[in-house]
């Protein structure tokens, strides 16, 4: 069904097609797993053209190991950053500002997840080629003084939105991949993660963590609880414990594709952020945890209009049942519309921009968003110990 693509090499291929004047090399920069999905979606568009060679690299940083696992799962061999920064490329695709002195080539800066949009590229001293800042929504377009006079701004849409929509017909397929039985319900909960500051907070709901409440108050024969790491360079130290894994918590690693888990869910629970924001696309109840955002909080902490708040003083099962009975997707339609102003057009818009910078004619095909890869999980069998 087109779930996998495996054309991503790190060395030259003597069987490379095309004339000498048509060959181009595209460098894809992935600096964190949560920003890596849109970049990999763009690399998929370039990887099907035999005139283009797609190379991947991971800049040094706290998430370098997780990015390496993400690229290996995609069938790519990362190019060391010390080699990539001085390489000769026709195009660079990234989702954030390149660290230090990056490659001298035209650059496309893609939008991040939700309202965590790509940072402005800023100064390009010592680098050649134009900079194109891609936005997911018209309202995300920066002012000319913010983007810089040498930066072009285009609205391309949101690949995460488009691929979730393309995956909705395969909900039962993803549920089987996650081991959700026909008579069980799947509760997806966003786990805390540390941001650039390295600080994080554990979501609490009553006595103990929210995950502990879900595992103790929901019957295992009727409910399956799956944890997704929130966006950040590395998981929070206050995340799931070995005891929670023994008690039945399923866990998607940070480098896994979390979009299929949202499609498979019956409830999506977590603080305001990408998991709950993109969860509004699926049509299932979205339940918000945590208190109101503090002054000066990032855009990701803004409450989701229409979301149901999960409170600590009421039983979890009672709240889940009530949310399922009263939920209407129309409640969060404004949130979905704010994600992208170009729904379903990401592939075409990005490919058009990419080939314009490459100075090549586009392939005679119409690109469409594909369903995401089936998810995988980490479990703890009852007879296998886990080191705390």
Radius of gyration: 21 Å
Estimate the global geometry from the Cα principal axes: elongated
- The average pLDDT value, as a whole number, equals 78
Low-confidence stretches: 1-18, 114-126, 194-199, 201-208
Strand order of the largest sheet: 2-1-3-4-5-6
Order of helices and strands: EHEHHEEEHEHHEEHEEHEHEHEEHHH
Reported for the largest beta sheet, the result is: 6 strands, parallel
Query: Helical stretch count?
Result: 13
Helix content: 25-40%
DSSP strand (E) fraction?
A: 15-25%
**End-to-end distance, in Å?**
40 Å
Category from helices, strands and their pairing: alpha/beta
In total, how many beta strands?
Answer: 14
Question: What is the secondary structure topology, with strand pairs?
Answer:
Elements (H helix, E strand, L loop, with lengths): L23 E6 L3 H15 L4 E6 L6 H10 L7 H4 L6 E4 L12 E3 L21 E5 L8 H4 L3 E5 L3 H9 L3 H7 L7 E7 L1 E2 L15 H8 L5 E7 L4 E2 L6 H5 L3 E3 L6 H6 L2 E4 L3 H6 L6 E3 L19 E2 L6 H11 L6 H7 L6 H13 L30
Parallel strand pairs: 1-2, 1-3, 3-4, 4-5, 5-6, 7-9, 7-12, 9-11, 12-13, 13-14
Antiparallel strand pairs: 8-10
């Amino acid at each position: 069904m087109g779930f996998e693509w495996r054309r991503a090499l790190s060395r030259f291929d003597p069987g490379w097609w095309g004339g000498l004047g048509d060959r181009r090399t595209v460098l894809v920069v992935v600096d964190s797993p949560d920003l890596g999905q849109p970049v990999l979606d763009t690399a998929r568009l370039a990887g099907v053209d035999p005139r283009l060679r797609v190379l991947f690299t991971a800049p040094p940083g706290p998430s370098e190991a997780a990015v390496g696992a993400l690229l290996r799962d995609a069938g790519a061999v990362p190019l060391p950053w010390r080699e990539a920064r001085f390489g000769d490329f026709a195009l660079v695709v990234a989702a954030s500002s390149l660290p230090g002195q990056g490659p001298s080539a035209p650059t496309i800066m893609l939008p991040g997840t939700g309202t965590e949009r790509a940072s402005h590229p800023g100064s390009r001293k010592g680098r050649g080629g134009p900079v194109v800042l891609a936005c997911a929504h018209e309202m995300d377009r920066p002012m000319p003084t913010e983007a810089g006079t040498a930066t072009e701004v285009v609205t391309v849409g949101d690949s995460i939105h488009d691929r979730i929509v393309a995956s909705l017909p395969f909900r039962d397929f993803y549920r089987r991949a996650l081991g959700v039985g026909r008579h069980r319900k799947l509760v997806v909960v966003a786990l805390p993660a540390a941001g650039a500051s390295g600080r994080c907070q554990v979501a609490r709901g009553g006595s103990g963590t929210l995950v502990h409440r879900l595992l103790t108050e929901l019957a295992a024969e009727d409910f399956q609880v799956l944890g997704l790491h929130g966006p950040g360079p590395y998981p929070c130290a206050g995340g799931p414990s070995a005891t929670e894994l023994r008690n039945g918590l399923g866990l998607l690693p940070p480098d896994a594709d979390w979009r299929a888990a949202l499609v498979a869910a019956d409830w999506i629970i977590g603080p305001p952020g990408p998991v709950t924001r993109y969860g509004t696309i699926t049509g299932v109840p979205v339940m918000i945890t945590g208190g109101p955002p503090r002054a000066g909080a990032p855009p990701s902490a803004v409450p989701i209009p229409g979301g149901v708040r999960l409170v600590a003083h009421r039983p979890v099962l009672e709240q889940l049942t009530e949310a399922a009975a009263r939920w209407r997707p129309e409640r969060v339609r404004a949130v979905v519309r704010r994600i992208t102003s170009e729904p379903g057009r990401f592939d075409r818009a990005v490919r058009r921009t990419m080939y314009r910078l490459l100075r090549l004619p586009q392939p005679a095909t119409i690109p469409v968003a594909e369903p995401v890869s089936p998810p995988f999980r980490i479990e703890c069998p009852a007879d296998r110990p886990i080191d705390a």
